[in-house]
Amino acid sequence: MDLEREKGITILAKNTAVQIGETKVNIVDTPGHADFGGEVERGLTMVDGVLLLVDASEGPLPQTRFVLRKALEARLPVVLVVNKVDRPDARAEAVVNEVYELFLDLDADESQIEFPIVYCNAREGRAGFKPDELAPDLGPLVETLLATVPPPAYDPAHPLQALVTNLDASPYVGRLALLRVQHGTIRKGEQVAWCRADGTIETARVTELYVTEALDRVPADEAGPGEIVALAGLPEVTIGETIADAEDPRPLPVSVVDEPSLAMTLGINTSPLAGTEGDKVTASALIARLEQELVGNVSLRVLPTAKPEVWEVQGRGELQLAVLVEIMRREGFELTVGKPEVLTRELEGVKHEPVERVAIDVPEDYIGVVTQLLALRKGSLQQMVNHGTGWARMEYLVPARGLIGFRTEFLTETRGTGIMHHVFERWEPWHGDLRTRPTGSLVADRRGQATAFAIAGLQERGSLFVAPRAELYEGMVVGENSRENDLDVNASKEKKLTNMRSATADELVRLIPPRPLSLEQALEFIRGDECVEVTPKSIRLRKVELSAGKRQTLASRAKRERDAVTSS
C-alpha cells in the first residue's frame, strides 16, 4: 500500500507464514496505531500468542498500551522483544522495567507478568537473552516463540468452524474471505454452511482455497485447524460471519469492535471549481464508495445528514478518517470534508467525552511551552521522566477534542523536534469550553487568479497558502490571519500600468514561499465554519458559506442569539 510507505506506519493487518523445521508458523502483522484498532481486534482472533516489539531507546508508547491491553484481555501469551539494542542511546534494562510497569497498570495477573524476554538487533538478524550477548542469528527468538506460543487448540470430533476476520479481492476469483480454521478441515470444492450476519444459514461451495507461504498465496486442496486461509466462492461474505460444516452448522460469536470516537462530514465538492480535476463528482458514486468501505472496515460508521449529498463518517481518530479521504482522493473523487468533531455519550444523565492519553518526547528546552499548550486544552500531567539525555517524556490526559489541531501547533512550537503519540483512555464528564484556534483566516473575496502583486501586499497580514497564478474563488481561505478575526482580501489584484516613469518601477519583490498543507494539517487547521475541498490534484480550504454577505448575516444572527441567552 503506497500510503503505508509514505507515512511509515502499518494501516492494514497482513499475514505471512514461515516453515521452521516441521512446524509452520503463521505471523500476523497488526497496526500499532489506535486509529486502526479494528484491524488489531480482528488480528488477535487469528493468533495463539503475541510478540510485543519495543524499541530499546523509546520504550513502550501509548500504541503499545492499546495493543497489549487487547492481547491481555484475550488471555494470549506474550513474548517481549527489545529491539535496536545497538543504538547508542539504548537503555534496555530501563525499558524492560517500564514494560513491567505497563503490565501492572493494565491489571495483568501473575501468570501474564511472567513473560520471556529476548533482545534483538533486527537489522543484523541477531538475537539473544542478554543485551550484550547476541547470537549470530535469530535462533534464540525462534526457540522462545516455539516454546511459549502453544499449538492450535481444537477438538478432533468437532465439525468445521472458521470465522471470517478480513476480506480481500482478486481480479480472477472475486471477493476472498480471510479466515482462521478453528475446528475441523476445510476442503476445496466441498459444500459448506455460510452463517450470515443476519442469522440466516446458506449453503455455498468452496470454489478456490489458498494458504500463505512466505509472502505468497498458493492454492491448497485442504486446510486444518490453526491454518489461515483465503476462500473464494462467497461473493457477498462480510467480516464476522462463520463458515461451518454443511451438516452441522454452528455459528461462532461475532468479535466486538470498539465504538467510534470521532466524526466528520463527507460530501460532494460544491465549490465553483468542482469537476475540473476529478472524474467522480456525484453523490451516488460517493455513497457507493463509502458502502464498499464499510464491508471491509468494521470500525467505520456512515450516517445520513439533513443534506442529501452529505454523510457523517464516524471512526476511531483523525488519522483513520484522513487515510480514507486520501485513498478516495487518489481514486479520482472530489470531496468536501468538514471539521472533525468528537462523539459524546450520555452516561447516567451526564454528558461525557473521550479522553486520550498523550505521550510526548521533547528536548528539555521545550518542556515549558508544551506544558502551556496542553494546559490551555484542559490537559492534566500524569507523569514526567527525564532520562538524562537532554530529552524528557511527559504523559498527559487530554480531552480528545483538545487534540484536534494540536499537532501542527506542537510541531511549530518545538521547531519540529517533538514526538507525540496518543491513544483513547476513558470517558470523562464534559470538560467545558476549550480555546479554539487563536488566529483567523484570510478569505478571498472574488473569483480570479492569485497575483504576485496582491500576495506581496498580504504577506504582512499573515502566512499564505496559495502561490501566484493559483485559481481562487469567493469564500476560499488563502491564508492564516495573524489576528483572531477573519479578513476578506483581494488576492487577485493586478498592478496597474501607467505611462509615468518611476525609479522604483522595476523593484524586485521577494515573496515568502506559500505554506503547503497536507490533508491532516488542513483538517486540524479548519474551524467550525470552514471545510476542506479535496481533489486528486489540490487541497483547498474554504468557508462553508462562500458568500461574504451571507456569512456576515449569519455571524450577526449568532451574536444576537448569544446576547439574548446572556441577558436572560
Detailed description of the structure:
This protein is an alpha+beta fold. Helix content is 23%, strand content 32%. It contains 13 helices and 34 strands. The strands form 7 sheets. Strands 17, 18, 19, 20, 21, 27, 29, 31, 32, 33 and 34 form an 11-stranded mixed beta sheet that branches. β10 (191-195) and β11 form a beta hairpin. α2 runs parallel beside α3. The chain is globular and about 95 Å long.
Main beta sheet: 11 strands, mixed
Rg over CA atoms: 28 Å
Mean pLDDT: 85
Strand content: 25-35%
Q: Termini separation (Å)?
A: 57 Å
Strand segment count: 34
- What percentage of residues falls in helices of 4 or more residues? 10-25%
Number of helices: 13
Shape: globular
Q: Which consecutive residue ranges, at least 5 long each, have pLDDT under 50?
A: none
> Strand pairing plus helix content: what structural class?
alpha+beta
Produce the secondary structure layout.
Elements: H1 2-7, E1 14-20, E2 23-29, H2 37-44, E3 50-55, H3 62-73, E4 78-83, H4 92-105, H5 110-113, E5 117-121, E6 126-128, H6 139-148, E7 161-170, E8 174-183, E9 186-187, E10 191-195, E11 201-205, E12 208-213, E13 216-219, E14 222-223, E15 228-232, E16 242-245, E17 262-268, H7 283-296, E18 301-304, E19 310-315, H8 318-330, E20 335-337, E21 341-342, E22 345-347, E23 350-363, H9 367-376, E24 380-386, E25 391-399, H10 406-413, E26 419-429, E27 440-444, E28 448-449, H11 452-458, E29 462-464, E30 471-472, E31 476-481, E32 487-489, H12 519-525, E33 530-534, E34 539-543, H13 548-567
Parallel strand pairs: 3-4, 4-5, 27-32
Antiparallel strand pairs: 1-2, 5-6, 7-8, 7-16, 8-15, 9-14, 10-11, 10-16, 12-13, 12-15, 17-19, 17-20, 17-21, 18-19, 20-33, 22-23, 23-25, 23-26, 24-25, 27-31, 28-30, 29-31, 31-34, 33-34
